[in-house]
């Protein structure tokens, strides 16, 4: 029996709900854990300043609802990238990373996902790449002291868009506390019609994968930029069954997190339920059993 724990990013649920409600809704849909988002908004960045009482209360809610937070997604690093040439921005990115690691430590979360942008809104160059590597190494060392995993996601950006590129990072930063957060949608989008390349990338670098994002995307093509977010499952180009089967045969038995952007939809719960049904059915079709159904 091969078992997968299937969770959901909090943005798949209505925004104006309490943590207690989010956990209850996630469990009602069928998910077994939540992913906490620290995005570019000041509202979510301010979570890094939560008091000890707020952190304790969230831990209590996780225990009461039997719905842990397994990962923290630090997508704020799009606005404040690790490779910024601005000295203040460079320091701020490191500081945000350290705060996210501290929050994970206090909440009992084992994995902080770092958005792998050397630069996003400004010009990329060799300097931004080198600064990214240095800042990432600093964060990995900080995380190792806290015993928290740092994962680099395969992104919607060419800087780190394959697991092979994460493997290259591991060659420079040799630490067991650095891993890959494989995004099946992003990996698929960059390969376009060359779907077998995604299979090879997953099989070759399976030992790096600490967590997986599941979302649908439209492939990047010569005259098409691709679509990396906001798609309903089954409307894009991702060959989920082939990728799930590849992971099953490679004996991956970690977490998978459904990533969606439903917060502004009145039917967010219905959309989340449809996503769970789509993904869970695909996983079961290739042989997986979900946690709680063993």
TrEMBL record:
Molecular function via GO: L-ribulose-5-phosphate 3-epimerase activity
Protein name: L-xylulose 5-phosphate 3-epimerase
Domain Xylose isomerase-like TIM barrel: 24-267
Alphabetical list of NCBIfam families matching this protein: PRK13210.1
InterPro entries: Sugar_Epim/Isomerase, Xyl_isomerase-like_sf, Xyl_isomerase-like_TIM-brl
Entry annotated with the keyword Thylakoid: no
Transmembrane parts of this sequence: none
One Pfam family named in its UniProt record: AP_endonuc_2
UniProt keyword list: Isomerase
Swiss-Prot/TrEMBL GO biological process terms: L-ascorbic acid metabolic process
């Amino acid at each position: 029996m091969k078992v997968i724990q299937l969770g959901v990013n909090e943005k798949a649920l209505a925004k104006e709900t309490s943590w207690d409600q989010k956990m209850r809704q996630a469990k009602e849909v069928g998910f077994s854990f939540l992913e906490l988002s620290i995005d570019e908004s000041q509202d979510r960045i301010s979570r890094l300043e939560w008091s000890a009482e707020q952190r304790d209360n969230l831990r209590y809610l996780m225990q009461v609802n039997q719905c842990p937070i397994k990962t923290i997604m630090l997508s704020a690093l799009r606005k404040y990238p690790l490779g910024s040439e601005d000295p203040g921005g460079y320091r701020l990115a490191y500081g945000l990373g350290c705060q996210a690691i501290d929050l994970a430590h206090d909440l009992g979360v084992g994995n902080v996902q770092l958005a792998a942008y050397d630069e996003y809104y400004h010009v990329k160059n060799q300097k931004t790449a080198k600064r990214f590597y240095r800042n990432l190494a600093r964060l990995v060392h900080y995380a190792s002291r806290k015993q928290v995993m740092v994962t680099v996601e395969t992104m919607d950006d060419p800087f780190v868009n394959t697991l092979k590129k994460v493997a290259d990072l591991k060659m420079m930063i040799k630490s067991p506390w650095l891993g890959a957060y494989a995004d099946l949608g992003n990996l698929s989008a960059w390969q376009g019609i060359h779907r077998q390349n995604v299979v090879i990338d997953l099989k070759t670098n399976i030992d790096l994968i600490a967590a997986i994002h599941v979302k649908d995307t439209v492939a990047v093509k010569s005259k098409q930029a691709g679509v990396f977010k906001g798609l309903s499952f089954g409307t894009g180009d991702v060959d989920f069954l082939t990728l799930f089967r590849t992971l099953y045969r490679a004996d991956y038995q970690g977490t998978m997190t459904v990533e969606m952007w439903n917060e502004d939809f009145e039917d967010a719960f219905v959309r989340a339920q449809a996503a769970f049904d789509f993904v869970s059915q695909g996983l079961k079709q290739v042989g997986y059993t979900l946690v709680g159904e063993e």
